[in-house]
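Let's inspect one such protein example.
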Amino acid sequence: MSTTKNIFYQETIIAQCTPQGRGALALLRLSGDDALQIAAHLCKLASRKQLEEAPSHTVHAGWVIDQDNSHIDQVMIIVMHAPRTFTGEHVVEITCHNNQFIIEAIVQRALACGARIAQEGEFAKRAYLNKKIDLVQAEAINELIHANTQQALKQSLSQLEGSLSHRITYLEQEIYKALALSEASFEFLDEEIDFGIQIKHLVESLLKEINILKQNFDQQQHIRQGIRIALIGSVNAGKSSIFNALLGKNRAIVTDIAGTTRDVIEAGVYRDGTYWTLVDTAGLRETNDVIEQEGIKRSLHEAQLADIILLVYDHSKYLGQHEVEIYTDIANRYAHKILIVKSKADLPSSGEELCLPSHTVHLNASVHQQSTVAQLEAEIKSKIEAILSDAHAPFLLNQRQFNLILGLEKKLYTLLPMLQENTPYELVSYHLKEALADFAELTGKSITDQGMETIFRTFCIGK
């Protein structure tokens, strides 16, 4: 891809950079070649100076004015000249009162003065196109905004500062060294220099580094996305009541009618710096109801997706043979991520105990006994700590990066046998150049326009 800016990316753009909703202040950002001139039409400085003459990186009190020179709002204005800005372009940031009528009036005034509305992620895209950041750092901005855990936040900040980019650059340089040795072999055909051994050592070293990068990718997703906790069990087992108790509010409908929950219900909550996605599922039982059968199918799918399963059964009632078989199958299949919850602990026990794997944790729980809910929550936190303790990683790769690294690893493994079989160095060079192409796509040096659009489309408008 050519990263040369076309006319579209030379236009000055504007967007609200703070979330819409209640709050004291909102921030709007103008970026582009004409940002200073457009802002000068928009804004009147309290100092009576011309905005275009304001020194870079200075803050000014003033007003946004309409075409009749009437005040739209009293604002603070930050003036930043290219190239010392995030986008590498002239940037003006306007902090106004957070009223949507005011915000809309300022945006419309900017549009009338020659700006246009920014696309999703266009500020970050311009920073990338102007070589202020690479594609890995641009993706880190999006990850930073959507971080669901404290660990993900720290890792995203580190990657924005270049931690992953620096590692990728180092690996890329090692490939260039290997390619240089391969190309040099053409000039020293008659010399007794074993270029293959040197290239092989470089490739083996690269494969070790790549293994570190991709190590524990599945566990890394726990850091990135948080923990998914599914409540699975038979009908009327008390799943929805426990779901509501853990959530701290009545999200799921609770009745004495069996089969009230017929579909998957999700809700999120933050606990100790980690995002929990709680999933209430349809009750497991034999049924001829087509809708209920679909709900049960989804429940079993959620058991597979979940990081933790709360396998809930009503200890005050006897379970049928079919229910016992389902519980036993789930417990054996997912024993490593299950907590057995005997619900309605305030009621007399039926005397029946499920014979489930001995290493699973069994808990009594009743929504009428807060201490049992607190104990259940403590066990969940303990299980989460164990999951996250296995998820230490120097970087958090997203799916695009992970797929490219897998492809790169495959190319390098293909190359190793060639270095042991006296393969012509022309062929070795060809494969090394292919590996360099993967690095270029990883950092965005050669990514297609379509690939770039796909990445930045996931960003919000003001980033």
Observations:
- The first helix runs from residue 35 to 42.
